[in-house]
């Protein structure tokens, strides 16, 4: 299971690098189930979440955990490998449409 989580983490990080290069700054964990990223421009994470849900994806805004609205948390534990790539592609589109 640990190897599968590391593989999924790497797939998620690679997808972010490909689709969101220069837009997010991520802290890659050595283990765990989640990836924290900072959005490098001003955006309302709650609005971003609403639009993401409409497109079929979910992430956790950092404000839920007391962080600023510029942070988001992505889980890589549950989604399958292909869903991670697709989810980041959708997230990139949604982020591009937010002011």
What can be said about this structure in brief?
InterPro entries: Aminotransferase_I/II_large, Class-I_PLP-dep_aminotransf, PyrdxlP-dep_Trfase, PyrdxlP-dep_Trfase_small. With 99 residues, the protein is of the alpha+beta class.
- The outline comes out as globular
Helix content: 40-55%
Radius of gyration: 12 Å
Number of helices: 3
Distance between the termini: 39 Å
Report mean pLDDT, rounded to a whole number. 92
Oligomer: single chain
What would you say the CATH architecture is?
Alpha-Beta Complex
> Would you tell me the structural class of the helices and strands?
alpha+beta
CATH level 1 class label? Alpha Beta
Give me the CATH superfamily.
Aspartate Aminotransferase, domain 1
Stretches where pLDDT is under 50 for at least 5 consecutive residues are none
Topology, pairings included?
Elements: H1 2-19, E1 24-27, E2 34-39, H2 45-54, E3 60-61, E4 71-75, H3 81-96
Domain Aminotransferase class I/classII large: 1-88
GO molecular function: transaminase activity
Cofactor: pyridoxal 5'-phosphate
Defining key terms:
Aspartate Aminotransferase, domain 1; Class-I_PLP-dep_aminotransf; 4 strands; transferase; 4-stranded antiparallel sheet; globular; pyridoxal phosphate; 99 residues; PyrdxlP-dep_Trfase; alpha+beta; aminotransferase
In words, what does this structure look like?
By secondary structure, the protein is α+β, with helices and mostly antiparallel strands. It has a single domain (2-96), classed as Aspartate Aminotransferase, domain 1, CATH 3.90.1150.10. It is 44% helix and 17% strand. It has a four-stranded antiparallel beta sheet with strand order 1-2-4-3, covered by helices on one side. Strand 1 and strand 2 form a beta hairpin. Helix 1 (2-19) packs parallel to helix 3. The protein is globular and about 40 Å long. The model has no long low-confidence stretch (mean pLDDT 92).
